[in-house]
């Protein structure tokens, strides 16, 4: 076996005449983690899809162990030992974990699918990952987003691939799960696997990778040894300029209470009391499954509270469905953009105006003259307002979700993982935007699994543990303090 | 960070691990509904002075279920795969004619007749599948198109029944063991085979995958086109068998046996009643058979009560809508974990 299991040479690809990749070279060595970085829309996922046999390159060569190959379908790439974890989750919600893991490669015994072997192997891999909380025979629809990500990883592992490409695998993971993934990636690397790792998180890239390739606007910029570059230099390569402070100053003075929960509860959370004031960004921290998203979804009326009181501007209200929530001035940026956030086959414009058209009346509902400005404020890079959202890069899709809520200027905005999959430059823009909205008097409740982001942005942090509020921390609390509460210990004491 | 090693018992408790508890799945619901219908029907018929489940009644229900069962089992396969087949009704007529005309009353021609009818069916299924996968036509339109072509051919070439089957072959249509028609047993056997195929074999798994999300299936390495074509061929074969069986019962082939009974929409109704999602990815043979039995029982009850055909259709329509609404409700409440 050669040391270069994968080499891509001069890959170009265009969609409908628009060039997305312009002669990209990439080389993966056995036993290395190779980071692929670049802004949203730079072409990272497209490059991965070329490697996965999803897209055929227009020109250029794909070499495996020095031999040129041409994949006509994903199964060819799979057979050649390439496993891909795509940016969007690719699971069948109504099939079990094991069925998903072995989809397309089900073991057969005496003419039948060998369920038992399939489930045993899935269980073994889940245990190996330390994720034995996921049952091999559970339907995927019952799993959280993070658990689904774990299933994707198991699926990739089960193929015994020599090459693993991961497209933002940590975007949906909480911190402790990210650490598990790190561990896993390191173990796989030590076994001689070649790993291509796409991420927008600097910290991960520096912790994990040996080399970094940067793309910009579909073109190869540079390939460097990770040890020989600083994060500032890296940002300059990606964005073309340096960025100043990532998190904006907390300037706004908090006004009156906009959203208040008093002993609110439902099947997933209990006895939750918290307040969000106008002008304030309140962070909601906790482990996956601790009830963070459940609170968000209850406030938004998807799975309403069944006990306690929800007050808006000091008046108790009942919110039984999202429509009522929207009418009352509550916005919710979902963590599941593909499932709940976007109508994928509709245009950027229709998506951005969706809430406005549904919630407002008369001329306000029809207004769209400010759309360009709106999309610009969230930095959407698209081929125009009429492009179908499904063809946008992942990060740009996320920005459209944000945009659709800003189109109605809610008074209370709940954001669940708002920067998932967004590049550094755009992240900074989103942080600024959220802060500006707060300064304008919006009350913002922010959920994020990225602790630095949560701490950098929040005026206060409410920490959840096992479906209840474990405590509240002031701005600038330490990561240890947050994790201490989130894991059920006291502040700062961590097992 | 040492936090990492922390076990997270919450996550475990908050997300049910998905074991198989008893639940009101559509399949369970449909059989409960069937039982309820039999009870209510028996009472109604008794009030009217008859008996629903006497020998004749059972025979009636099972005979009605045989043809619809065959067609609906085939339809289940295409619907689970995320497709649809509107051409089955004309195909049934065509196959009954092919079988009866080939046999032409001769006992020695039974096998060639059946084989030819099934070959024609498979060919039509293949065309359906290829139009959908290669020409990328929507399944609804593609199979409607094929249905129209078949109709044109039938109208041009036939004005009424044609061909005849030998007496020996009529046994298939009329023999029974006690109150149970042999053909119904054969249908159940075939349904069992279909169940095994869908739930136990790899191509069957792939049907669910393709119907669940074709893109996910493709990215996972499933041969999606092959799966769709296979489903259509199998569905057409079932329709072909139904045609052959009808020829055996009628003694000849008839161009409109399939359409007169509305087996196209009726089979789709049975599948949906059985809990399948029209969008694909969910459903199964067991549920479908429940749906078939409900429809057949309803018909038998109405016959016994001699109700007006208009009322009959209204009730069937209501049953279908109520069923689908119930399943939709279940889907909402069991939605997603946070
Ligand atoms: N199937 C497609 N049809 C048309 N355009 C496409 C298609 N797939 C991707 N594109 C376009 O190609 C460009 C690169 O997209 P890609 O998804 O590769 O970006 P990315 O680097 O992965 O970005 P992100 O960080 O946001 O995930 C984008 O402008 C996108 O709109
Ligand atoms: Mg991408």
Question: Could you provide a short overview of the structure?
Answer:
Chain A is built from 18 helices and 22 strands.
Description of the structure:
The complex is a heterodimer of chains A (495) and B (338). Chain A is of the alpha/beta class. Chain A has two domains: 6-239, P-loop containing nucleotide triphosphate hydrolases (Rossmann fold), CATH 3.40.50; 257-494, Rossmann fold. Chain A is built from 18 helices and 22 strands. In chain A, the strands form five sheets. Chain A has a six-stranded mixed sheet with strand order 6-9-10-3-11-12, with helices on both faces. Chain A is globular. With 338 residues, chain B is mainly alpha-helical. Chain B has a domain at 2-6 and 65-286. Chain B has helices at residues 9-14, 26-47, 55-80, 88-103, 110-133, 139-157, 167-174, 182-200, 202-212, 214-219, 224-250, 257-260, 263-273, 285-305, 309-333; strands at residues 176-177, 180-181. A two-stranded antiparallel sheet of chain B has the order 1-2. In chain B, a hairpin with a 2-residue loop joins strand 1 (176-177) and strand 2. In chain B, helix 3 runs antiparallel to helix 14 (285-305) and helix 7 crosses helix 11 (224-250). Classes of the chains: A alpha/beta (495), B mainly alpha (338). At the A-B interface, helix 2, strand 8, helix 6 and helix 9 of A face helix 1, helix 9 and helix 10 of B. Adenosine-5'-triphosphate is lined by residues 15, 20, 38, 40-46, 87, 391-396, 421, 423 of chain A.
CATH top level label of the largest domain in chain A: Alpha Beta
Provide the low-confidence segments of chain A as ranges: none
Bound chemical compounds: adenosine-5'-triphosphate, magnesium ion
What is the number of E strands of chain B?
A: 2
Basic shape of chain B: globular
Distance between the termini of chain A: 44 Å
What would you call the structural class of chain B?
A: mainly alpha
Alpha-beta classification of chain A? alpha/beta
Within the largest sheet of chain B, what's the order of strands?
1-2
> What is the gyration radius of chain A calculated from CA atoms?
23 Å
The CATH topology of the largest domain in chain A corresponds to Rossmann fold
Report the major sheet of chain B: 2 strands, antiparallel
